[in-house]
Every structure is written in structure tokens, then in C-alpha cells.
């Protein structure tokens, strides 16, 4: 075994073999070149030019792909931000429903609590008057204990001032009015707030234009899918019974009502000294229900206390549209219409035309869709419906979803969607230095492919809309 000066065996032999192999390849190329009179050399030059052109194409495609990814990211960010704001508004309206129930429910059941308490106390005292030897010791203790503690007198004075305050208008009524005004304004203005958030987030993430459908002024789909209940039973719904008796979700609501009511009684600290029962212990669900009805008869109460309920339920396309938004994002790059198309004019003739109406010219588009979503796990009730438990359990979230799903029935024609969203796009473009002449063709292109958003154009199956 041989070693070189570095002590590594066989390294010199391997180097000599490599030199011999390279020399043989050079000799072969030179002989081929002489035999073909330079054709091989020209072929190598052509191959190098081809590789250079492929490299340019890959580089340009990479730049376009990066812009496409950025625009898609902008659309996703805008869509999620829009849905998150709407979900937050839905939760705030639900919180206000809880506030209404707290004010209206606890206050209204007080209408009948004192009369029912005095009726019970009268019965206890009547039983006690039959004599000590009738076995009515418990009734006597309740009667004497309550009167000794002066509870009937103090509660009676408080009840009188309560009635007078309700007639004249009290602070709690002002709070109820403030909650009702807050809900009304949130339903009206939250879509504009969400749209502004979507545009800002989309532009900050690389888009020059962000637009959406439905717009906030769309009377059918633009508002939050909420509506204030009306009529006499609506005020009762805000009371301790959170939903109508005839509503499918009422079994779960009534169980919750009973649980909350029992908790109030268990936390009682108002028992008189020697009495086994006091005002809080004799409160009954039936009496509180009667109080809810009595409170609902007041004009101010019937006007302010009804809660907001959901108007988009089920799995129909219309329900999904009321809870979702479709977002378009656009980035303008003047190189798309100039430099990137002229890179190869020095090598090959320009055998194409860019003056075709509707041909994408100076930018890239992308789309996303977001929606507000109520997780079934957050609903303590087994039943669903417009008046289900989401009225009083704020658990809405925002999320992204596919633009269209297979067999999903879109209630609005895709062309009408784009026609409504296009106006905002044209207003934004000049603010971010977008060339309107170039963008005109891009708008026409987006209008063309948007017709196939649902996979059909004029009733025929297409791939353009789904694949764009």
C-alpha cells in the first residue's frame, strides 16, 4: 500500500486516474468538434442559451408566484379580520341580551314577590291563630318571627317606592334603554367596522385593493344576522325564562332557569331569627313568571327589554351568505405589463398581442371567504332555532372557509356579487398608485372569471371560476 506526503493511502493514484479520465473526455470532444466542423460547439451554445431563457422564465414565474402568495395572504388576513370583528359584535349583542335579562328578569319578578310573600305570611298567621295545641308550631314561628324582624313592614315600604319609581322612570330603565341603543347601533355599524378592518389588514399585508361582498349597505346580507324581537311575548323572553315556552329550545332554557332560580334561594341570607322561612325562601317560579308578564305590560318595558335573536339558521346557502363574506384582493405591478413581457423580445419575435379586452395586464387577484361560526360544543342546549341559547351565551368566533363548496347553492349570482364589490375596488385604486388604465383590463378579467365562481356559466359547468 502506497501513501502520499500527507499519509493518506491511495490519494495520488486516485488523482492520476481522474486526470486521465478528464483528458480522455477532452480528447473525445476535440475529435468530435473536428469531425463535425464546429456543430457540437454551436449545439452547446444553443443549450446554454436555452438554459438561460429557462432561468429567466423561472425567475419571473417565481416573482409572480411570490406576489400571488402575498395577495392570497392579504385576502386571508382581510377575511379573517372581518369575520373576527363581526363575531365580536355578535358576542357583544349577546352580552347585552344577558344584561337585559338581568335587569328585566330580576326586577320584574319583584312585582309579585311581595304580594305573594304577604299572602304566604297571612296563611302562616291564620294557621297559628287556631291555637297552640293544633300542631301548627312551624306556622306560628314563621308568623311571629317575620313580624318581630319587621320584614313585612320594611319590604312593604320598599315595594311602594319600587312601584312609584317604575311609574316615574328609574335608573334601571335608563340602563335598559342604554343597552337597547347599544345593540341597535352595534347591529347597524359593526359591518362598516368589519369592512374597515378588512381593508386595513389586507393593505398592510401587501394588497393594493381589498373589496368584499356583501357590502354593509346590502339590506339582505350586509347587516349582522340579528333582529330585535317584538310584541308582548318578546319582553317575557328577556325575563328569567330566556325563550318562548313553545320554542324547541325551551326545555334546556327552563332547566337553566330552574337552576339559576334555585341558586338564588340557596344563597339567601334574609331569614328572620326564629322563622324557618323568609321572603326569599317563599319565592316561587310561578310567581316570578307572573311578574315577568306584569312587567311586560308596561310600555317602556315592552319596547326596550326584548332581546335580539338570530335570523340565519340552518344549512341553506342564504343562511351561510348572511354569516359570511367573500373577499377579493389585488396587487398592481407595472412590470407585469412591461418589463416581464419584454424580457424575451431580444431573443424571439413578439408573436402575441396584449390588446385583448379582459386579458390580465398589470396585477394579480386572489380570493378568500370568511364566516362567523357558533361552535355546537358551546351550546348547552340540544335544540337549535332562531331563539336558541346563543342569544344568551356569547361564543361566536371568526374563521376562514372555502369560497364555494360542492353542491352549495349560492343565493346570489356571482356576477351580481362582483358588481357590488367592484365599486369599492375602483375607489381604493387611486389611493395606492394603481394605474387605472391598466387596472381596467384586470377588472374586466375578474368580472369574467367571477361569473364561474359557483362552477357554472350560463348553466354550463366550468373550471375557470373554481380554479382561479
Structure, briefly:
By secondary structure, this protein is an alpha+beta fold. Helices cover 56% and strands 9% of the residues.
Order of helices and strands: HHHHHHEEHHHHEHEHEEHHEEH
Query: Mean pLDDT, nearest integer?
Result: 74
The protein's oligomeric status is single chain
Give me the count of strands: 8
Q: What strand line-up does the widest sheet have? A: 1-4-5-6
The gross shape turns out to be: elongated
Helix and strand content put the structural class at: alpha+beta
Give the DSSP E fraction (strand runs of 2 or more residues): 5-15%
Annotation field: number of helices: 15
Range of helix content: 55-70%
The value of Rg in angstroms is: 38 Å
Distance between the termini: 67 Å
The main pleated sheet reads as: 4 strands, antiparallel
Low-confidence stretches: 242-250, 269-274, 463-468
Keywords: Membrane, Transmembrane, Transmembrane helix
SSE layout and pairing:
Blueprint: H1 11-36, H2 39-108, H3 110-128, H4 137-148, H5 151-168, H6 171-204, E1 209-213, E2 226-228, H7 232-237, H8 250-266, H9 285-296, H10 299-304, E3 308-310, H11 317-322, E4 324-332, H12 339-342, E5 363-374, E6 396-401, H13 414-428, H14 436-450, E7 456-457, E8 460-461, H15 464-467
Structure, explained:
With 468 residues, this protein is of the alpha+beta class. The chain has a domain at 95-187 and 225-310. It is 56% helix and 9% strand. It contains 15 helices and 8 strands. It has helices at 11-36, 39-108, 110-128, 137-148, 151-168, 171-204, 232-237, 250-266, 285-296, 299-304, 317-322, 339-342, 414-428, 436-450, 464-467, and strands spanning 209-213, 226-228, 308-310, 324-332, 363-374, 396-401, 456-457, 460-461. The strands form 3 sheets. Strands 1-4-5-6 form a 4-stranded antiparallel beta sheet. α2 packs antiparallel against α6. The longest helix is centred in the N-terminal third of the chain and has 70 residues, at 39-108. The chain is elongated and about 135 Å long.
Amino acid at each position: 500500500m502506497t501513501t502520499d506526503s500527507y499519509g493518506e493511502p491511495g490519494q495520488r493514484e486516485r488523482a492520476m486516474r481522474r486526470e486521465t479520465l478528464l483528458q480522455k473526455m477532452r480528447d473525445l470532444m476535440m475529435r468530435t468538434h473536428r469531425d463535425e466542423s464546429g456543430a457540437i460547439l454551436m449545439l452547446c451554445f444553443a443549450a446554454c442559451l436555452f438554459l438561460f431563457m429557462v432561468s429567466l422564465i423561472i425567475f419571473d414565474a417565481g416573482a409572480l408566484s411570490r406576489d400571488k402568495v402575498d395577495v392570497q395572504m392579504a385576502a386571508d388576513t382581510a377575511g379573517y379580520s372581518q369575520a373576527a370583528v363581526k363575531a365580536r359584535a355578535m358576542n357583544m349583542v349577546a352580552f347585552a341580551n344577558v344584561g337585559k335579562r338581568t335587569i328585566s328578569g330580576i326586577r320584574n319578578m319583584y312585582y309579585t314577590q311581595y304580594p305573594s310573600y304577604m299572602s304566604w305570611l297571612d296563611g302562616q298567621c291564620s294557621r297559628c291563630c287556631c291555637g297552640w295545641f293544633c300542631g301548627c308550631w312551624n306556622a306560628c314561628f314563621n308568623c311571629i318571627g317575620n313580624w318581630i324582624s319587621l320584614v313585612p313592614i320594611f319590604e312593604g315600604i320598599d315595594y311602594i317606592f319600587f312601584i312609584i319609581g317604575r311609574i316615574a322612570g328609574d335608573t334601571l330603565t335608563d340602563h335598559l334603554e342604554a343597552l337597547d341603543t347599544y345593540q341597535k347601533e352595534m347591529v347597524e355599524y359593526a359591518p362598516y367596522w368589519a369592512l374597515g378592518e378588512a381593508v386595513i389588514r389586507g393593505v398592510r399585508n401587501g394588497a393594493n385593493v381589498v373589496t368584499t361582498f356583501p357590502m354593509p349597505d346590502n339590506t339582505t346580507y350586509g347587516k349582522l344576522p340579528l333582529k330585535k324581537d317584538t310584541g308582548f311575548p318578546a319582553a317575557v323572553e328577556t325575563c328569567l325564562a330566556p325563550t318562548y315556552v313553545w320554542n324547541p329550545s325551551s326545555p334546556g332554557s327552563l332547566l337553566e332557569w330552574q337552576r339559576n332560580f334555585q341558586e338564588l334561594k340557596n344563597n339567601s341570607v334574609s331569614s328572620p331569627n326564629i322563622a324557618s322561612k323568609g321572603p326569599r325562601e317563599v319565592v316561587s317560579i310561578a310567581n316570578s313568571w307572573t311578574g315577568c308578564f306584569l312587567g311586560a305590560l308596561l310600555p317602556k318595558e315592552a319596547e326596550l327589554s326584548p332581546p335580539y335573536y338570530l335570523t340565519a339558521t340552518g344549512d341553506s346557502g342564504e343562511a351561510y351568505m348572511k354569516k359570511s363574506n367573500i373577499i377579493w384582493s389585488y396587487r398592481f405591478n407595472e412590470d407585469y405589463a412591461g418589463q416581464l413581457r419584454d424580457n424575451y423580445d431580444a431573443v424571439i419575435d413578439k408573436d402575441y398581442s396584449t390588446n385583448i379586452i379582459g386579458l390580465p395586464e398589470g396585477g394579480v387577484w386572489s380570493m378568500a371567504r370568511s364566516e362567523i361560526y357558533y361552535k355546537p360544543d358551546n351550546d348547552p342546549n340540544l335544540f337549535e332555532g332562531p331563539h336558541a341559547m346563543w342569544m344568551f351565551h356569547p361564543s361566536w368566533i371568526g374563521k376562514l372557509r372555502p369560497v364555494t363548496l360542492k353542491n352549495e347553492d349560492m343565493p346570489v349570482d356571482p356576477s351580481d356579487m362582483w358588481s357590488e364589490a367592484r365599486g369599492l375596488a375602483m375607489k381604493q385604486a387611486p389611493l395606492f398608485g394603481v394605474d387605472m388604465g391598466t387596472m381596467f383590463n384586470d377588472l374586466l378579467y375578474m368580472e369574467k372569471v367571477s361569473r364561474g365562481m359557483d362552477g357554472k356559466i350560463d348553466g354550463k359547468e366550468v373550471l375557470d371560476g373554481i380554479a382561479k
